[in-house]
Amino acid sequence: MKLTDEGLRSAALWRQAGIRLPSFDRSAARLACAQAPVWVHFGAGNLFRGFIAALQQRLLNQGLQTAGLVAAETFDFDIIDRIYAPHDALALMATLRSSGETDLEVIASIARGLKASRDFAQDWQALCAAFESPSLQLASFTITEKGYALRDLNGGWLPAAESDVRRGPEGTRHAMGIVASLLLKRFEAGARPIALLSLDNCSRNGEKLRQGVLTLARAWRQSGFVSDAFVDYLEDETRVSFPWSMIDKITPRPSEAVRERLQALGVEDTQPVTTARGTYIAPFVNAEAPQYLVVEDRFPNGRPPLERAGVYMTDRDTVNRSERMKVTTCLNPLHTALAVYGCLLGYPTISAEMQDPDLKRLVERIGAVEGLPVVVNPGILQPEAFLREVIDERLPNPFLPDTPQRIATDTSQKIPIRFGETLKSYMARPDLDAAGLTAIPLALAGWLRYLLGIDDQGLPMPVSADPMLEPLEAALSGVRLGDPASARGKLDALLRNDALFGVSLVEAGLARKVEEMFAYMLQGPGAVRAALRHFLAPS
């Protein structure tokens, strides 16, 4: 039982093992994609394979679509070489239910995986051909928040973005430059309409995608690389739309327990790999069962019938309210708080943290006490019920092997949205007082303490990858565990930086409180645990 087209011919073995197979003709779906591509997705990792590709599989199984997806990877090309190519772009989805049951399904809706770089001429030509095709309806994205970032904390160009501005559309490296140059190909091939759909976990994701693409296109126009007409095309949302979305599904790194189960069932070659860029990925995807996708219905060249696969198709206001509910209150800020404190306290999984009364009290307060007062009910999802599902069922799921270290990746890119938006709402309302918050500033202070790379036992601790890690560590240099006075004055510039926290914590009235909490955690080993109990103690 090999996860390849050839291996799937032994269909009886797969079914005997309890693994669902696709019911559509995969060869026909791949041919249809080659002749008339409909959907290109950027970001070939777990969330795409375990959620987005599974949506298209539902539509193919129902006969509601005929073409497979194109997966394009902009960052880690080893994923294509070491996971997609050996397995014919197939994936094995393991849905981990809180009851302990595991559903297994082969995802076969991905027609091919491509490297989105000019360094790979054949792949690049295939991507250009897809964007030049009149049939292409949408390009979607799961490239994480940092994939849209063009500037650093000081407002200067990031190196890859600066290179794209200088070299123009024929020399792009940054994800936004790659997309903008592909859209130039589409413009030159007849300026056909298309939707660009961000499916990343960040507020106003469609706006971020639009801004990233347009920023580079306008810089190119200023340098004479592109015409006014091309920029006009991108700015006209009746031709190039950027729908907003809210997506929610936890897809942890591959679990050894899942791999062992697949091996016991007879599935071969499921060993995870670590790529040169540090991605830990496997031929299988393990994820939770709950999933939500809310999409603004604005597709100028038509779209797949996503509502038939369980997607909420709606208007921008509803998407925005749904996204703010999740990203700024009911899930993402809880995840980030658990990530940094889980690392500091030595927890192996998020689910194990939820058995800790101090940490459960922290996330309850972040969500139910401090977050819900500023949430606007989206109507299609109820915030209180969503939050209770997260706290009572999803995060404590012992069969979901999600780690604090994974969630802590790129935290600097998440803080402005996951906490900053709630702080903005407090500051905008005269009936609320941001300075009276406790759990949110405690989460921010915990992150700053985490950046020291010393756990609560006083031992060295790895800090997850983050594009801002070097300047943040430099800003905190000289701060020492056991010497709270060493932090004096070290946080001033950081706490005033609205790019880092979404707002100036000085203006929010929270700077002194964060400084106090941070200093408390520096008293010595055990001070992080003591801070949780001290600051969250019932009044």
What do these coordinates show?
- By secondary structure, this protein is an alpha/beta fold.
- 44% of the residues lie in helices and 11% in strands.
- The protein has helices spanning 11-16, 26-35, 46-61, 78-84, 121-132, 159-167, 175-188, 205-223, 228-235, 256-265, 316-330, 332-345, 350-353, 357-371, 383-394, 404-407, 411-418, 420-428, 439-450, 469-475, 492-496, 498-501, 511-520, 527-535; strands at residues 19-20, 39-42, 69-73, 91-96, 102-107, 110-115, 138-141, 194-198, 240-241, 245-248, 273-274, 280-281, 284-288, 292-296, 312-314.
- The strands form four sheets. A six-stranded parallel β-sheet has the order 6-3-2-7-8-9, sandwiched between helices. Strands 1-5-4-13 form a four-stranded mixed β-sheet. It has a three-stranded mixed β-sheet with strand order 10-14-15, with helices on one face.
- Helix 6 (159-167) packs across helix 8, helix 8 (205-223) packs antiparallel against helix 9 (228-235) and helix 12 (332-345) packs across helix 19.
- The longest helix is centred in the middle third of the chain and has 19 residues, at 205-223.
- It is globular and about 65 Å long.
- The protein starts with 10 loop residues before the first helix and ends with a helix.
